[in-house]
């Protein structure tokens, strides 16, 4: 059986393999973003098995999509995924072997100037190589040539790394982007792996992204993960997996939110495990938003939600993403434009980081990204066999972050309101712009769908 040469693990993969390998004492959450430590103590003759999972969230965890370059200086983020940014394969390779790098150069230079890591999606075949952009080229050497040209240019760009990660394709189980077979997509994955091993071994290779909210999408995802190329499982050819975590617009009688996205993540992880993908393999949410429909063209606009609900979506998404072990979370997107009237107007997603059509105007939800980053600074802790941000049977979520100077506890309940007793000498703040307050009578406050950050000495 042919075995591919072992890739030099990218920095992301090396960190995940080392840290998660030390943290599998009990069955807990999957690998955390970049720094996982687990400690346990078992007492002889006792039933207690105390285990702590600690997550330290790096700046690269906070990702967005933005082709406008207007988010810089307005939002704090550490990762940028280039999709719907006019830099697909067919937009760069304008004729066989001729590349127009001007747009991509501009995007990469801006990211470098702001110390943001770039992920480029290597998708959409030029018309002179295939009958449709959603099909693989008739000769895979054309794809290899393009990947080699990109990697060669951006492994050292302006004197330092330009592109940190390359993703094989976008949403391989959505016909708007891919109409080939799972086997053909696995072949492209091997092409990117092989070119990367020769041209840029330090780059991270990201598997194609997949939507997972519908049964047929999850089945397609499983079929890809079960593929072999040259007798080798496709999982050997990438460093990280990728999902589009868009839940259905509604769940029962309520508008769906971050907790529903995490439920999709759990289902996807189950399928990855069945396909033999190691639990330590990093997993990226390469697209996420809410209210996204899949109906007729004239019914694509998401149902608008309140400013407060949008703020809550952003904070809860990044908190839960970290707690559930995602390595990156890329918000789709910063620079929305209004849909044409023929498509119903509005936007595809209901949670907006900037005013549609005006990316220089940040919304309250956009400012909430800074809140999420600030609240997650420190060590996100889970205890007693539970992952961080555990949910109580009442529906209450509690995230515990320990930092130099005290403890932050972040509470919310997406189902209903309830009262929570606070620690002594605590102060609290409601997202996004609530002022800091001291706990009132009986040291209790009411918690609802909006996250509340409670700070105490311990």
Spans of at least 5 consecutive residues whose pLDDT stays below 50 are: 13-50
CATH architecture of the largest domain: Alpha-Beta Barrel
| CATH level 4 superfamily of the largest domain | Glycosidases
SS strand fraction: 15-25%
Distance between termini? 57 Å
Question: What radius of gyration results from the CA coordinates?
Answer: 22 Å
- The counted number of beta strands is 27
The major beta sheet can be summarized as:
9 strands, antiparallel
CATH domain class name of the largest domain: Alpha Beta
What CATH calls the topology of the largest domain is TIM Barrel
Structural class call reads alpha/beta
- What oligomeric state do these chains adopt? single chain
Q: Total domains, how many?
A: 2
Shape: globular
Number of helices: 9
Q: What percent of residues adopt helix (DSSP H or I)?
A: 25-40%
Mean pLDDT: 89
Can you describe what's shown?
With 458 residues, the protein is of the alpha/beta class. It has 2 domains: 13-55 and 381-456, Golgi alpha-mannosidase II (Immunoglobulin-like), CATH 2.60.40; 58-379, Glycosidases (TIM Barrel), CATH 3.20.20. Helix content is 26%, strand content 25%. The chain has helices at residues 11-21, 89-92, 102-113, 140-154, 182-199, 215-225, 258-274, 307-323, 364-375, and strands at residues 35-42, 49-56, 62-64, 79-82, 93-95, 98-99, 117-121, 165-167, 204-211, 228-229, 232-233, 240-244, 250-251, 254-255, 283-288, 328-331, 354-355, 358-362, 379-383, 390-391, 397-403, 406-412, 418-421, 427-430, 437-438, 444-447, 452-456. Strands 1, 2, 19, 20, 21, 22, 24, 25 and 27 form a 9-stranded antiparallel β-sheet that branches. Strands 3-4-7-8-9-12-15-16 form an 8-stranded parallel beta barrel, surrounded by 6 helices. Strands 5-6 form a two-stranded antiparallel ribbon. A hairpin with a 6-residue loop joins β1 (35-42) and β2. α6 (215-225) packs parallel to α7, α7 packs parallel to α8 and α8 (307-323) runs parallel beside α9. Mean pLDDT is 89; it is low at 13-50.
């Amino acid at each position: 059986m042919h075995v591919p040469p072992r890739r030099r693990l990218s920095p992301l993969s090396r960190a995940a393999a080392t840290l998660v390998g030390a943290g599998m004492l009990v069955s807990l959450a999957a690998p955390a973003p970049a720094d996982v430590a687990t400690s346990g103590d078992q007492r002889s003759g006792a039933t207690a098995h105390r285990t702590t999972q600690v997550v330290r969230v790096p700046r690269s965890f906070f990702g967005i999509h933005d082709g406008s370059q207007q988010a810089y200086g307005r939002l704090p983020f550490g990762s940028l995924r280039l999709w719907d940014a006019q830099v697909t394969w067919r937009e760069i390779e304008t004729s066989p072997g001729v590349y127009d790098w001007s747009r991509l150069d501009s995007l990469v230079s801006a990211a470098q100037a702001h110390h943001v890591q770039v992920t480029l999606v290597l998708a959409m075949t030029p018309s002179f190589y295939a009958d449709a952009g959603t099909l693989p080229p008739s000769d895979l050497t054309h794809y290899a040539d393009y990947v080699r040209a990109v990697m060669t240019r951006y492994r050292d760009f302006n004197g330092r790394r330009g592109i940190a990660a390359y993703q094989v394709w976008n949403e391989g189980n959505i016909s708007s982007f891919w109409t080939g077979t799972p086997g053909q997509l696995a072949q492209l994955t091997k092409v990117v792996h092989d070119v990367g091993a020769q041209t840029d071994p330090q780059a991270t290779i990201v598997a194609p992204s997949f939507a997972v909210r519908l049964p047929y999408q999850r089945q397609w995802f499983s079929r890809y993960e079960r593929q072999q190329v040259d007798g080798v499982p496709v999982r050997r050819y990438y460093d990280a997996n990728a999902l589009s975590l868009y839940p259905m617009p509604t769940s029962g009688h309520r508008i769906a939110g971050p907790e529903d996205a995490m439920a999709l993540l759990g289902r996807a992880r189950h399928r990855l495990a069945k396909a033999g993908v190691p639990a330590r393999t990093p997993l990226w949410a390469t697209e996420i938003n809410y209210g996204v429909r899949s109906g007729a063209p004239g019914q694509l606009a998401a149902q608008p939600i309140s400013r407060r609900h949008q703020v809550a979506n952003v904070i809860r998404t990044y908190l839960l993403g970290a707690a559930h072990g995602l390595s990156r979370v890329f918000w789709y997107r910063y620079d929305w434009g209004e849909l044409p009237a023929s498509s119903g107007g509005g936007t595809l997603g209901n949670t907006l980081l900037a005013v549609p059509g005006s990316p220089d105007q940040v919304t309250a939800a956009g400012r909430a990204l800074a809140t999420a980053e600030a609240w997650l600074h420190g060590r996100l802790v889970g205890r007693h066999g539970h992952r961080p941000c555990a949910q109580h049977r009442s529906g209450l979520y509690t995230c515990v972050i320990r930092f130099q100077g005290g403890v932050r506890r972040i509470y919310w309940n997406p189902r209903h309101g309830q009262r929570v007793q606070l620690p002594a000498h605590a102060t609290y703040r409601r997202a996004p712009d609530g002022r800091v307050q001291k706990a009132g009578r009986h040291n209790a406050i009411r918690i609802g769908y909006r996250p509340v950050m409670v700070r105490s000495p311990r």
